[in-house]
Amino acid sequence: MTDQIVARKKRNRTTLYVLLSALLVVVLAAVAALIYLGSLSRSFDSQTKKLPAVFPSESVRPQASAPAADGKTAMNILLVGSDSRAATITQAESGTPSDQRSDTMLLVHIPADRKNVYLISIMRDLWVPIPGYGSAKINAALAFGGVPLMVQTVESVLGQRLDHVVFMDMEGFKSVTDAVGGVTVNVPKTFDARQTSNYHFDAGTQTLNGDQALAFVRERYAFPDGDYQRVRDQQIFIKALVAKLATPQTLANPVTLANVVNQFSPYLAVDSGFNSGAVVSLGLELTGVKPSDIVSFTVPTNGTGWSPDGQQSIVIFNQPATSALADAMAKGTMSKYVADNKLQNGN
Q1: pLDDT category, 12, cuts 50, 70, 90?
Q2: Which CATH number does the domain housing residue 107 bear?
Q3: Within the chain, what is the greatest distance between any pair of CA atoms?
Q4: CA count, 13 A, side-chain hemisphere, 229
Q5: Residue 243 domain-assigned?
Q6: CA dist., res. 344 & res. 333, Å (int)
Q7: CA 224 – CA 210 distance, rounded (Å)
């Protein structure tokens, strides 16, 4: 009987040791993960350039959205891909006139319920009123008055308050694509890239490396409708990139994640409030969003035309349709707006 008791105690002790060992492994793994995530956060904060003065005077800005029942509000992030002509980001953020223009403008609208993400492209040649300068192409706002005027122009056109501004050197597309081992896209039509390379793209699914990705998102001269198709291709690439980043193979691979952060961060300039803490917080809120929940389309236009002096080819602004879009964003009815305008697959 005594031997049975001793044996039982040994078994219990062994079980306890196993449980304690397993718990220790879990704790150590959690600590390592926190240290790792802390390291990635420090990398993001140290490698991105901060833009401390990107917003215009409060008196000329739309009011912030009212919070939903759970206290969350919709979020608007302006993503700008710049050609960085002779100007520096410092010049642009200060409001100093320069020759820098925004090559790509994308409004990322995230509703308060965090169930979808809307990628709304703004055509670079959209002819709109620029406060203090009359009407011009929207991408000229950056040249006229730096980031504050660019933000004021976008906010006035869309009637929406911007929460964050992110500048990205277009070379960042190349860097992040290589960091994740290539991005698979469904090329909508066969074309030869003429603008930045001699790459040939066949219609259909193919995996792009960094150089090919950069050529894919920048090309417009190969298409009859020019910038319209380029914007569609940019939307296709961004959705494919998000799908690649959201896979378990990527999220569970610390080497890949570190490569993405370290390779991409140096190409970003962000407003001072968009630090790693804000990025992580937003990421946690969007954990339920799948690639299929990302909807992309373009700000409504009335096709192309010419500036009043007949010197510039422009994209004609559709004010009534854009007002309807702004109303949907403000009221949280974007899903209905998309369905009513048949934008599930873009426009």
Answers
A1: low
A2: 3.30.420.590
A3: 105
A4: 15
A5: no
A6: 14
A7: 25
Q: Cα(185)–Cα(55) distance, rounded to whole angstroms?
A: 35
Domain count, the chain: 1
195, part of any domain: no
Tell how far CA 191 is from the center of its chain.
Answer: 26
Residue pair 300/325 in contact (Cβ under 8 Å)? The answer is yes
**In a domain? residue 245:** no
Rg of the chain taking only CA atoms, in angstroms: 24
Cβ-Cβ contacts under 8 Å for 118 (sequence gap 6 or more): 107, 108, 109, 110, 111, 294, 295, 296, 297, 334, 338
Residue 263 is given by DSSP the state H
Range of the domain at 336: 51-168+292-340
User: What is the SS3 assignment for 237?
Assistant: helix
Please list, in sequence order, all residues whose beta carbon lies within 8 angstroms of the beta carbon of residue 96, skipping any fewer than 6 positions away.
146
Identify whether the C-beta of residue 165 lies closer than 8 Å to the C-beta of residue 78. yes
Give per-residue pLDDT as tens, 46-65.
888 888 888 989 988 988 77
**Model pLDDT for residues 306-328, shown as the tens digit of each residue:** 989 888 888 999 999 999 999 99
pTM of the model: 0.81
More confident residue, 266 or 324: 324
DSSP run (H or E) holding 22: helix 2-47
Q: Has residue 281 been placed in a domain?
A: no
The mean-pLDDT minimum among 33-37, 121-125, 199-203 falls in 33-37
